[in-house]
Amino acid sequence: MNGFATTLAALAINPIPMWSKQMDPRADAQDIESILSAIRSVSGDGTAGLHEPVFAGNERAYLVDCLDSGFVSSVGEYVTQFESELAKFTGASHVVAVTNGTNALHLSLVALGVKPGQEVLVPAISFVATANAVAHAGAVPHFVDVSTETWGLDPQAVRTYLSAIAVQRDGNLVNRETGRTISAIVPMHTLGHPVDMTGVIEVAQDFGLKVLEDAAESLGSYIGDIHTGLVGRLGVLSFNGNKTITTGGGGAILTHDAELAHRIKHLSTTAKSPHRFEFDHDEIGYNYRMPNINAALGVAQMEQLPGILANQRKLYRKYVQAFRTDHRVSMRGEQAGTLSNFWLQALLLDSQSQVSRNDVIEGALAQNITVRPLWKPLNTVAAHYSSPSAPTPVAQDLYERVVCLPSSVSLASK
Amino acid sequence: MNGFATTLAALAINPIPMWSKQMDPRADAQDIESILSAIRSVSGDGTAGLHEPVFAGNERAYLVDCLDSGFVSSVGEYVTQFESELAKFTGASHVVAVTNGTNALHLSLVALGVKPGQEVLVPAISFVATANAVAHAGAVPHFVDVSTETWGLDPQAVRTYLSAIAVQRDGNLVNRETGRTISAIVPMHTLGHPVDMTGVIEVAQDFGLKVLEDAAESLGSYIGDIHTGLVGRLGVLSFNGNKTITTGGGGAILTHDAELAHRIKHLSTTAKSPHRFEFDHDEIGYNYRMPNINAALGVAQMEQLPGILANQRKLYRKYVQAFRTDHRVSMRGEQAGTLSNFWLQALLLDSQSQVSRNDVIEGALAQNITVRPLWKPLNTVAAHYSSPSAPTPVAQDLYERVVCLPSSVSLASK
Predict the structure, then answer these.
(1) Are residues B141 and B224 in the same domain?
(2) What is the pLDDT of residue B398?
(3) Which of A103, A261, A350, A374 is surrounded by the most beta carbons within 10 Å?
């Protein structure tokens, strides 16, 4: 069995095709109500959030136990246990639990050696945190396009773009326009669907870029037999309230590199030098350690992760069934050789669709069904408008055609 | 009644003198065991932490209720309620709850307009977070000495120092040595004891400095009838596990300035522009909002705050009683016109004490009694060694003579 077959066998699941159907622009005219009715047949009437957590396991018991222990802050057994459960599940040699995904990205960029004034390549399609974290490290996000196949960073487009705008100078990749060093690239697994990491790592090696894998949305997603976040040297997870599992606020850094993990943990805990009573700190650190009370929630959520992932696949199939007669839309499935956690269920409208993405969104919101578009491409977001950017036609096209559907795990069994 | 008398009457408490006794260098020889035995008579034998929280109220109920609500992350009613309880208690017009005190300081410096490359005056005696937050804002901490009276920043020493090393140039206060603008000052209420804010604000006005009040340790401490953190334009609290009340990890920003509070809340929640479904962000924001699950713990802790403060005063009196016969030491009390929360009980050794601070600390630790020194003066900490600094003889002297004693609130009733 190859790596991916092993993953499928171990998880006892079957892969899902990339698209639920071939879209057909010649298909019958669409009406907005048929689309809304299909969504409603899965999400139910009104009040369904986009991605609501379920606390059906030991959450209450572990929170109470955490209080009983007296350890609720940045030291405690639940933090250690949460890290250990994440390591077991993902196969990471080292896990560092931190306050949230944004701070995990920031800390990782610092630990990788990204310096103030450098540029970092970021996909135009991502939550703003990916670009903000670059700015928090004093660096400048430089946006690149995504792929129609993966919806994540397009390594081929990056290669062509860098060849045109950058030059090697004194061992650094330099942006000819800005004169700044481009030092790293941050691929992101959009909505939980794995990006082409093989391509990203190749282009990173060819151009001398550090790789930070933003797996904030992809706990439970695999490329072959490797969990997302572990293909590059360093990967980041998020446990925000809308994620596959939640710790209230939280994030984690995954790596096989012991030295890097040690430095990250050190930086996350104010870089305090070991001493029985003196407060010395050997570099400028952060207060980014996950509190024990949040980790207690995480340990309980991890126990339910396999069930949550199974239900997200079930929910996907319910949407496929609901949309089976509409040939102007397709549900986003899995790229060959990858497994998605289906964090957010996504509907793609045909490029010649008679109804617009906004028609669907406005219509659904009017019926209290929480849907949303992809993120506004980051190179068009006010906060980052002045940052350098490659042309991003694919990002813009996806932004105009994707609708994220209600994806709460409880909908799978409704 | 003047302001302070009002505070005392409202809280139904009496002020405590600055020192439990006049120290007498001619007093009888000390022996280390008599000091340790006095500590032990209050802290009990072994395993007493330095400052352990007590969860004797509605903590369990509110955590379970928070899970039941489904809102555990950065939106939820407990966050709003926690802010409202803090506002009621401190008298702040606006409160923004965030992930921790360090991030609260960072965000406040950004909101006050401290710019990368500027210098910020920080007392040499503080937890490293005060200086780190300055660095996180891209600025440079510049250390100044503390006062023998308050143990906090010494405004008179700052005035003399600035007159010597800085010059007004184009409306900015410029450090003549480094050429950098000195833009702000961050007084900190050491161990909960209020700093001389009147003096700090005068020197800040005279030299054109922004003031950020680090009240991380002083929830429940007052200057006259004003709660610490509200004398300047902006103040910061911390709810770390070792603080007067805890939210696991957490912090808050207090202000009477509506516009500033609005901007800080906006920055803490990724600076998202209001829209029903689009993700636009009008500046580079942060993921610093306090999660609802942590706020649920905070609301329960706030209910117990008056009792905790009363017990810390009771604990102080137990230590005074324990040390009554040793005239080479004194317990730190209250400056006239201020109220302290007595966050950490502090013993000062006479300058001619036969036993050293390290004798006491090593001796206590050997008996499993958790004591600690003041923080290593920040201008001698490796992470900040290269930052500019005024001479800090008082910081160094206090560092060599202060021992922080077990201060868990449960010790008051043992």
Answers:
(1) yes
(2) 97
(3) A103
